[in-house]
From TrEMBL:
Name recorded for this polypeptide: Carbohydrate ABC transporter membrane protein 2, CUT1 family
Top-level taxon in the UniProt lineage: Bacteria
UniProt-listed Gene3D superfamilies: MetI-like (1.10.3720.10)
The keyword DNA repair is annotated on this UniProt entry: no
Broad class of where this protein is predominantly found: membrane
One annotated Gene Ontology cellular component of this protein: plasma membrane
InterPro entries found in the cross-reference section: BP-dep_ABC_trans_perm, MetI-like, MetI-like_sf
Family per similarity comment: Belongs to the binding-protein-dependent transport system permease family.
Keywords: Cell membrane, Membrane, Transmembrane, Transmembrane helix, Transport
Biological processes annotated in GO: transmembrane transport
Length: 272
């Protein structure tokens, strides 16, 4: 009976995963189809005439600049989030801070607010400081929403690390900062990488901040530049899907490389 239950659960899981991944599969195969095959009835589930013209069209259309902009914005936003959230989360986990309950509540509330709530205040601030039409505006905007999430997540992880590790390091002559850099960070590296990946994914998929704070299309990321893949007199679906495939490729690669850290224990093997 247990074996039958395992088979049912496995089949159910495969079906659910297939349903979630089918749109991604359809996007990719559409990018390799001709425009005529895209509208063919009945639809084909694999390209009959495998072609790369749509990718060449998109690449020659300036996707490289959009890709570079996305890398700059997402990469710098991730660095800002980690530089601010990692020491902040460690301090909130190790030291007694007055009003920490209210602070955590405020951080939690910020995660419930849509991006449009902070859009106008940030626009006013960036306009007064001369940061509009620069990379700095979307970087700071996405980091503003990423820092509270990372602090909430990392604080819980740091609280789970035994204090005995730091006490043992202090006996060996390590100060608080050295113990944090040489003992705590290596142990919590999987969690830090997960927060970095989530922050990168959030910044990579940002659209509203980039098009609001940057009127210059030369500074737009892939999410905003994808509109240029739409034809003037109609949507060229194979070109559009080629653009979308290029856009999600870095996310898929990063997720595959970091998937083991998503399930790896935070302090596994740290205390024997």
């Amino acid at each position: 009976m247990s074996k039958r239950k395992n088979w049912i659960l496995s089949i159910t899981g495969i079906v659910i995963v297939g349903l979630f991944l089918f749109p991604v599969y359809w996007m990719i195969i559409t990018a390799f189809k001709t425009q005529n095959e895209v509208f063919q009835t009945p639809p084909t589930f694999f390209p009959q005439n495998f072609q790369l013209d749509s990718f060449l069209t998109v690449i020659s259309g300036g996707v490289g600049q959009y890709f570079l902009n996305s890398v700059i914005i997402a990469g710098c936003a991730t660095i800002v989030v980690l530089l601010l959230s990692v020491p902040s989360a460690y301090g909130l986990a190790r030291f007694k801070v007055r009003g920490i309950g209210l602070m955590m509540l405020v951080f939690l509330v910020t995660q419930m607010l849509p991006a449009t709530v902070v859009l106008t205040p940030l626009f006013v601030v960036f306009n007064n400081t001369g940061l509009l039409n620069t990379y700095v505006a979307p970087i700071l905007a996405t980091a503003t929403l990423g820092v509270p999430f990372s602090v909430l997540l990392l604080r819980t992880f740091f609280m789970g690390i035994p204090k005995e590790l730091e006490e043992a390091a202090s006996i060996d002559g390590c100060g608080r900062l050295r113990a944090f850099l040489q003992v705590i960070l290596p142990i919590s590296l999987p969690s830090v990488l997960v927060c970095g990946a989530i922050s990168f994914f959030f910044a990579w998929g940002d659209l509203i901040f980039s098009i609001t704070f940057n009127r210059d299309q030369e500074l737009w990321p892939l999410t905003a530049g994808i509109f240029n893949a739409i034809g003037r007199y109609g949507i060229e679906w194979n070109n559009l899907m080629a653009f979308a495939t290029i856009s999600v490729l870095p996310v898929i690669i990063i997720f595959v490389l970091l998937q083991k850290h998503l399930v790896e224990g935070l302090v596994s093997g740290s205390v024997k």
